[in-house]
Model the fold of this input.
Amino acid sequence: MFRRPQPDAPVVDIRILLLQHEAGKWMLPKGTIEAGETPEAVALREVAEETGLHNVRIVQDLGEERYLFFWKTEDTYYDKTVHYYLMEFLGGEETCPQREEGFVRCDWVSVPDALERIRYKETREVVRRAEAALSRESSPAPEAPHGSPP
Done:
């Protein structure tokens, strides 16, 4: 999830939304697909549930990341695949972290700050892909040579 301070803002001014879990870790919104849901519907639902933001749009598919981890409290190994989307916040709402899921804070941060706060390398890679997509989106289109048809 990103927001622009103004419509033509350069990538360096764009802010990424991070969630902080009560355990201290910073992360991107994500969740589990429910029966009958598309990956896009899951992304929109989870962003709304975890951040309180509904006025968003999906800009681009950022691909999948696979996480293998051990959950100590459940004494269980998990193999999880998360599908990420670059989403733009369109304004008009305040964030509200989902406390029932252990989220205590939402912060809009610069890309370098996001990369510094996030501890999982897979999630940092997703942020880098988002930054690359935003850089491509904000680059001016190449001009056609003079005398060429439009």
Notes: Residues 121-138 form the longest helix (18 residues). The domain at 2-135 is CATH 3.90.79.10 (Nucleoside Triphosphate Pyrophosphohydrolase). Strands lie at 2-3, 15-21, 26-27, 56-71, 76-89, 103-109.
